[in-house]
Amino acid sequence: MTLSLHSEFSAPDRVVVQVGGRLDAMTFGELDEAMLALLPRLADGGTVVIDLAHLEYVSSAGLRSFAKIRKNMRTRGGHTLLLNPQPQVRKVFDIVKAVPVNEVFASTQELDAYLDRMQRQITEGDDSDI
Amino acid sequence: MALRSIASRTALWVLVGSMVVLAAIGALLLSLTRAQILQHTHHEAAALAANAGSQIQARIDRVAVSAQMLATIVATRQDDAESLLRDTLSTNLDMDGLAAAFTPSPDTADGSMYSPFVRRLDDGSLASRNLSQDSNPYWNSNWFLGGLGCASGCWQRPFLSLSRHRQVINYSVAIEREGHPIGIINADVTLDWLHQILGSLDKPAGAYAFVLDSDGNYLAHDNPALVGKRGSPALLNALASDQAGAMRLRVAQNPRARGPVWVYSAPIEGTRWRLGLVVPEYQTYASVRHIFMLSLALGLLALLGVSLITLLTIRRTMAPLGVLADRAEHVARGELDFELPPARRPDEVGRLTQSFDHMRRELALHLEDLARVAREKQRLASELEIAHQIQLGLLPNAHYLDAVCAQFELHAALRPARAVGGDLYSYFMLDPQRFFVMVGDVSDKGIPAALFMAQTITLAKALAPRAQTPQNLLQLLNLELCRGNDSCMFVTLLCGLLDTGSGDLVLASAGHEPPILCGRGAPQLLEFPTGAVLGLYEDSTYPEQRLRLRPGETLLMYTDGITEASDHELQMYGIERTVESLAQVPPTADTAAYIERLLGDVDHFVADAAQADDITLLALTWHGAGAPPTGIDIDNRLPDVFVALDRCEQLLQEAKVPASLHGDVRLVLEELMVNTVEYGYPDGRPGRIRVLLQSRPGATTIELIDDGIAFDPLQSTAPTLTGDLADREQIGGLGIHLARTMTDEMRYTRDAQGNHLLLRFTYPTQDGSSP
């Protein structure tokens, strides 16, 4: 089983990337490349949602890829949110404390609620800290 | 609070005590003095009274004598009566008036008779008149008739002369001619002089005098209000009782005198008057009281002075004590360097100061001694601690798992009763096939036993390759230990040699406790003949005992610390309880369970009684021959790594390893192998990586062998985890951290083949937790 990737812009400033299969030292390059192509298309201050529902396995190479995306987004004032990690992946995240817990969501509903909240703050002109 | 000091209390008590003594002595003195004073006063007053009496008498006598002389003269020269009267009156001032009254004869009844009465006027001149021409004929009046009977003169009653406004008393003498009274000479005597006499008496202060006439009326009194009044019955009774001298009256008649009075009386001769001198009792004692009061005041003053001196003296004497009390508090705080007051005199305080100083110096020495002992003790303790660490270092790990094929497993526990002890265990691979194990117990405890234990364990390891069998090892060890063993220490030792392929076990014992075989049915005590203990008899031999372990069976070796563990009643745990305890362990349990169970039961039995002896337990489980591990060999290239990972996953599936472990195993292998490929060959040379995988019930063991540069993942430092990987500048070390966290056991060795990393994954138990 290898890596599967699927991305979709739900808005000019929001892209949802579905990552499936295995993300390891063999496949992390694919994700890196795809994101390299994808992220410049995203408006500054936008949000990348990485849907991990179908990701079965991640190793430290995959963690590095996620970290790269988060760094990239951060320099552009954007956000990286992780959606629905499976137990094996969640375990790895927990061991290395990969991302802040408030940026990981167990379901689409949770994510939507969070995004709504964020949207409101932006329209109120305060997007500086979430 | 002011009485807190001894000085002020003592001063107060001295004051109070002296006052009591002074008061007692004063009272005694007063009562003695009073009697004396009273007597003295009696004498004085009586003398005074007598003196006053005689003074009055002298005056009266003059009047009486003058009157009597007149009477005699007038008897013959009746016609010269007036001039005689005038002469007499002018010379005798006590007389206020003189009368020569004649009894009327029948021939002179018509009033031609001349009865002259001369009296002194207020201006001192004399006036005269004829009494017989008074409207009331005098010859019928009482004074005249009474006077006729007084041939030798007599005093009449005093009366108030209305014409002269003064108290007057008459003295009458009959004028006799031829034995018959023909008239009387009547002298009016004023009582002023009597008052003057009384007033001029040298009376004590507060005293007063009086003169009583024969009827008990006051003729004269220092208190004029009482003149003419009758004396009080008490006074009259007292005077009548004829206790001339001193009489005590409870109440004086004179309102000027308060309280009881003393009355001194003296009769006035020639009259029936009495002179009295009244001295109030309080006045009698006034002087002594005054002196007493003065003495009392002076005494009090003196006592105050004495108290003050006492206070100052004691305070001065006690001052060093206060300082010493302060210093004692210093001593309590451990401060011994302070000034002491100088010991001025060899008295109690001085001696106390000296003793205090002595105590301070001795205490300092003692403290220094104590500190030295404590340091010594600390040094010993630290040495013992180091010895303890060294001894622990002599023992191999408490857990040993056969790395290559997982055919046997060993758990051991050693609990010294003191910092260091004489129990020992050891094990090692004699060759790739045979595993050597032993448990021993040195006689005695503490440091000697620990040294002997160190010698035994070191010798055993050195001699094992030469001995090859347990009985040979015991014999060789015995010979070595006997050499130079003057202190006659000895050690019991149980040796076993396990053939890891077949489960064949050879045992030999040097006086040690028999081992117990557990795992199939009831635990079985393996009793077999043993040789003598090691270290005492050079010619000892050691019979061997052979048995074959079946897969899953566990051999338990122990020291007498288990069987002789005692509770508070000194009851020993014993071999029966040991066997019973082991029987409770389920057959499927792992090796460590035997140790935990038995130690737990012994602890429960002993409760909080002190551990008397070292305790050692060793459990050896043979898992059976098992299938040989599957090997996967790859080149040091990344794609090969993933080929190997896929192959491993396939093997895990075939061996029915729980699916939840597959991800973990894959992750650990990926991280370690990718790490090896990326960093293990910095020179870029081709290399080989070998994965040996063996799954058996309960756990999967994997050995990773590579010929790259030396790398022990257990020695790499754990990464700092901030909670966000994007914060990290360099994303490295995460893979090794993941691998270490997800492996149940990881062991690293390096030999000629290269790096060996043994990984062990324990299967989750039914409830989902890892064992």
From TrEMBL, chain A:
Entries under PROSITE patterns matching the protein: STAS
Annotated family: Belongs to the anti-sigma-factor antagonist family.
Organism: Rhodanobacter ginsenosidimutans
Domain STAS: 12-115
Protein name: Anti-sigma factor antagonist
